[in-house]
């Protein structure tokens, strides 16, 4: 395994980065169709191809096929580290709960493909491990041997983050693959743009009301994990990078296959109500004032205050909390516009527009 790849991007090439596919083969295929990749385009796949979604085995096959495409670079995510844990050194008593708690994972799929039951005992797991090693050698070796980072000219790609050092290539494997705070609070001392996945961008305040790639210009950090298969109204993102002179131009596409509805009546709120939202791990709420549709709440840990839709308030360990991903924003819509319907509650519907921004509109606005 080459730990860090160093590649000269050449001139005037479009660069595309996708991360955290999480077994969403259908969304991945749709996103690739939208991108219409040209032979000279550079494609970076930035880790976490497996688990959570319904077709990890399919995604692994797609990624392996793409890896044979010129100018395609496939990096490891923290979930790809599970391959060695499952197949080589992990203890059965530690792994079995993972089978039982996370049915949507690559190894349950491999068991189904082989026609063997999901293991529930240590002996059954050891037999399944033996079968996996016999039948999925190519897939396991491919995932295990993926590089941890990519230096692409003035761009750095790593699944989760880098160490706060100019010599980022000396970052530990744990820092590169599972650096949870990096997107929201990490330091970038390289003077280059750092592109990461791993942490859904929704958790960063600067993402505002979307799961689109989130750009922090001050720190030169870009998060591209759209919360796919993790957040309630997630999407699979592609960050598109093109160089204009000495500057980079960043744009994006996303795949979200939920049904669309049409707006029948325009809506333009006088006050958008800001971007008060859940943010991992700050889920708990103090309800300051209850309202008929939205209640005024304070996030317990941070002290930030704002409105939460009543249907999005639940309880955890006996305390009020966000029941699902939620935001206070009221969204403007135009007549005839097509939007994704995410949720409904009371007199309001939660929608996503064609640019990926989410918010509430009166349900009567929609057909």
In short:
The protein is an alpha/beta fold and 367 residues long. It has 9 helices and 20 strands.
Tell me the count of domains: 3
What is the annotated CATH architecture of the largest domain?
4-Layer Sandwich
Q: Return the average pLDDT rounded to an integer.
A: 95
Instruction: Report the structural category.
Output: alpha/beta
CA(first)-CA(last) distance: 54 Å
In the CATH scheme, what's the topology name of the largest domain?
A: Purple Acid Phosphatase, chain A, domain 2
Largest sheet composition? 6 strands, mixed
CATH superfamily of the largest domain: Metallo-dependent phosphatases
The value of Rg in angstroms is 22 Å
Q: Can you count the helices? A: 9
Shape: globular
Low-pLDDT segments, ≥5 res: none
Tell me the β content. 25-35%
| Residues in helix, % | 10-25%
Order of helices and strands: EEHEHEHHHHHEEHHEEEEEEEEEEEEEE
Total number of beta strands? 20
Widest sheet, order of strands: 1-5-6-7-9-8
Query: What is the CATH class designation of the largest domain?
Result: Alpha Beta
How would you describe what is shown here?
The chain has 367 residues and is of the alpha/beta class. It folds into 3 domains: 4-77 and 146-255, 4-Layer Sandwich (Purple Acid Phosphatase, chain A, domain 2); 82-141, no CATH class; 260-365, no CATH class. It is 22% helix and 26% strand. The chain contains 9 helices and 20 strands. The protein has helices at residues 25-35, 56-67, 82-89, 92-101, 106-114, 122-135, 137-144, 173-177, 182-185; strands at 4-7, 15-18, 42-45, 72-74, 149-152, 155-158, 193-196, 214-216, 221-223, 236-244, 247-255, 260-262, 285-289, 294-299, 305-309, 313-316, 319-322, 338-345, 348-352, 358-362. Strands 1-5-6-7-9-8 form a 6-stranded mixed sheet, with no helix packed on it. Helix 5 (106-114) crosses helix 6. 41% of the residues are buried.
């Amino acid at each position: 395994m080459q730990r860090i790849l160093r590649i000269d991007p050449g001139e005037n090439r479009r660069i595309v980065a996708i991360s955290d596919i999480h077994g969403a083969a259908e969304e991945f295929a749709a996103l690739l169709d939208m991108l219409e990749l040209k032979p000279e385009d550079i494609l970076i796949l930035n880790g976490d191809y497996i688990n959570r979604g319904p077709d990890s085995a399919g995604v692994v096959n797609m990624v392996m096929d793409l890896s044979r495409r010129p100018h395609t670079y496939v990096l490891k995510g923290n979930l790809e580290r599970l391959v060695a844990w499952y197949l080589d050194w992990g203890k059965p008593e530690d792994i079995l709960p993972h089978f039982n708690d996370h049915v949507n994972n690559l190894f349950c799929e491999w068991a189904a493909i082989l026609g063997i039951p999901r293991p529930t005992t240590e002996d059954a797991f050891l037999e399944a491990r033996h079968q996996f090693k016999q039948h999925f050698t190519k897939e396991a070796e491919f995932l295990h041997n993926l590089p941890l980072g990519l230096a692409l000219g003035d761009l750095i790609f790593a699944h989760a983050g880098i160490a706060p050092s100019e010599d980022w290539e000396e970052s530990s494997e744990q820092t590169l693959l599972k650096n949870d705070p990096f997107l929201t609070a990490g330091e970038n001392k390289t003077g280059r743009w750092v592109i990461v996945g791993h942490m859904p961008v929704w958790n960063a305040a600067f993402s505002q009301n979307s799961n689109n790639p989130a750009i922090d210009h001050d720190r030169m950090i870009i998060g591209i994990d759209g919360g796919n298969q993790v957040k309630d109204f997630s999407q699979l993102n592609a960050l598109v990078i093109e160089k204009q002179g000495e500057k980079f131009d960043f744009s994006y596409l996303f795949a979200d296959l939920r049904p669309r509805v049409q707006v029948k009546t325009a809506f333009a709120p006088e006050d958008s109500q800001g971007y008060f939202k859940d943010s991992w791990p700050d889920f708990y709420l103090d309800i300051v004032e209850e309202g008929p549709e939205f209640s005024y709440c304070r996030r317990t840990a941070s002290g930030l205050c704002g409105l939460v839709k009543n249907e999005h308030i639940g309880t955890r360990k006996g305390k009020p909390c966000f029941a699902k991903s939620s935001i206070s924003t009221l969204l403007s819509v135009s007549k005839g516009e097509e939007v994704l319907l995410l949720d409904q509650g009371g007199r309001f519907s939660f929608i996503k527009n064609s640019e990926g921004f989410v918010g509430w509109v009166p349900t009567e606005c929609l057909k």
